Amino acid sequence: MALADPSYADRLRALRAELARRQLDGFVVPLTDEHMSEYVGAYAQRLAWLTGFGGSAGTAVVLPAEAAIFVDGRYTLQVREQVSADHWSFQQVPDVSVAEWLGEHAPQGARIGYDPWLHTRAWVRQAEQALADRGATLVPVDANPIDAVWSDKPAPSPAKLVTYSDELAGKNSAAKRAEIADWLEQRNADAVVLSALDSIAWVLNVRGGDVDHTPVALAYALVHRDGTADLFVAPEKVDDAVRQHLGNSVRVHDRAEFVSNLSKLGGKRVAVDPERAVAAIFDRLEAGGAKTLALRDPVVLAKALKNDREIAGHRAASIRDGAAITRFLRWVETECPKGGQTELSAAAKLLEFRQATGALVDTSFSTISATGAHGAIPHYHVTEESNAPIEPGQLFLIDSGGQYLDGTTDITRVMPIGEPTPEMRDRFTRVLRGHIAIATAVFPAGTLGGQIDAFARRPLWEAGLDYPHGTGHGIGAYLSVHEGPQRIAAPNYPGGAAMEPLRARMMLSNEPGYYKAGEYGIRIENLVLAVERDIPDGDRPMLGFETMTLAPIERTLIDPSLLTADERAWVDGYHARVAEALGPELGADERAWLALKCAPLQA
Q1: Beta bridge partner(s), residue 67
Q2: Residues 156, 200, 477, 432: is their CA dihedral positive or negative?
Q3: Is this prediction's pTM over 0.90?
Q4: What is the number of structural domains in the chain?
Q5: What's the domain range around 287?
Q6: Tell me: the pLDDT tens digits for 425-479?
Q7: Following DSSP, what letter does each residue of 54-67 receive, concatenated?
Q8: How far apart, in whole angstroms, are the C-alpha atoms of residue 579 and residue 594?
Q9: pLDDT digit string, tens, across residues 96-142
Q10: CB 410 within 8 A of CB 354
Q11: Per its UniProt entry, which superkingdom is the organism in (predicted)?
Q12: SS3 content of the chain, % helix, strand, coil (to 5)
C-alpha cells in the first residue's frame, strides 16, 4: 500500500496496516543501515521518513496502540521540535532502552518484527529476553515493512568508487592486507568479514560517494589468511582504473552475491565484529556451517593510529580550513550585527569560504548553524522551516567541518552578535577552561578516554552546570568525522563509556560545551592528536595532546579574570600559533583582524 506524499500521521497509519497484514504486532526502526553506519544514505533514512526526526542517532518502536521514539541527551529538544507528540512518546536513552521499553509495553503474546540487517546480535538477544517475560517473541522479517509503504524511497547512490593514492594514505593496500593476514594467523582464523564502510575504504585505499559527507561506498569485503580479499560492490561502481588499483589479489563481485558467498564459508573459522556486523551476517555464516569468532574488526585500531603521512595531511588541511574559518568569523562579526543574515545564509557563506580554497571535496557533516535558542540544541540542524534570523544580543554557534583529500576537519566556534552578557562570558570562560584542561592534560599511556572526561567538566561542575554529550570523538583521515574506537566520554553519555585505552597517534575532538535551554549554546571544539610526552624523572610512558585545529577563539567572550596564569598562557600561546600559521594564507586586512583577535589577553 504505497502512499504518494503522506503526512507523518499517514505514514504511521500505513506502517501499522502493513504490520497487521504481516501478522506483526510491532516493529523496531533504528537509524542505521546494513553496515551499522552512523551516517546513512538517503535510501536508509527510514526513521526520518517515518517520524520527521532529523538527528543522527535514534530508534522508533511502533505498536498497535502506541509508538515511541528513543534519543539521547543531544536530541532532547530537537526531537520535540521535529516529531509530533500527538503520535509519539519521547524516551531518553540511556535512562530507558528500547528492549526495556518493549518488555514493559509490548502486548502479551505479541509478535514484534525487526530487520536482522539493521541490528546487532547483542541487541537481538537483549530484546528477545525482554520480550520473553511478556510471552512475546521477536520476529525477523525478510523484507523491511517500511520499504513496502515508502513509495518514493530513493535508490542507493550510483556514485563510482574512486582510488585513494598510496601517497595520501601513507601505506598501500597490500601492506594493510598483509597485516590483517598476520592478525588472522595469530587467531587461527581463515577470514574476516569487513562490513563497516570506512574499514573497507581504508584497507583497499578507495573512497566513494554513497553516504552524504562521508567518502565511502556501499560494499562488503572478506579478507583472507593469505592476504587476498573479496570485494562485494555494485559492478557499475567499478571502472578499469579502480580494478587496476585493486590488483589481482582483490577479487571483485557483485554486492548482491555477498550473502551467497557467506554460505560458501562452511567449515571455515570466520572473524566477525559483533559491534559492527549485523545479526544477519552471523546467522548466514552459521547456517552455512562456518564457525564465527566474535572479534573486533582488525581495521578499527589500525585506522585509528594515524601514520606520518595522514598526520601531515591533517596539518595541511587544518591550516587551509582554519583560514576559511577565520574569514568566516570576520564576516560574522562585520555583517551579522547589521541584520539580514540567517542561520542558512551563514552556513552558505561558510561553505563559500571553504569552496574558495579549491580543495574542498564535501563538508564532513551537515553544518550546525545555530543562533540564540537553537544553539542550546547540541546537534541542531537548520532547515527552511526552522531557519532563524541572527540578531543582536544572541550567541551564534557554528559547528562544521570539511572533507579534503588530505584530511577531515571538525571545528566549533561561538560568536556574540553585539555585546555578550556577563553570564554568557562566565559560561564561555568555564567551557574554555575545560577545553584547556583537556588540551594540556598529561596522563599515562593506556589511560581510558572516560578517565579524563571529568577534566573538561570540572569548571562547569563548580558552578552547578554540565553538558549532555561526550567531550571527544575520534576522527578519520579523509573518512568519517566520527571514528572509533577512541572517545572521551563518561559512562552515562551517548555511546556509553569510553573504554578504549588512549594511544599515541590517535586523533580526537576536544569539545566541552554549555547549553541554556531557550537562550543560547556554547561549544569550543578543536581536534587534538595524542602524542608521547617526555616527563623528566618520570617512570612511566606518558601521553598528552597536540592541538591540530587552528582558528581564533572569540576573545570578547573570555573573562580573563576567571583564568589562571597558566590558562591565560595557553590561550596566548595557541593564538600565537594561529596567527603564525594562518597569516600567510590571508590578505592584509584579514591578517590585521586576526592579529587583534590573537593579541595576548590582559589579566
Answers
A1: 62
A2: positive
A3: yes
A4: 3
A5: 162-303
A6: 999 999 999 999 999 999 999 999 999 999 999 999 999 999 999 999 999 999 9
A7: -SSS-EEEE-SS-E
A8: 7
A9: 999 999 999 999 999 999 999 999 999 999 999 999 988 999 999 99
A10: no
A11: Bacteria
A12: 40, 20, 40
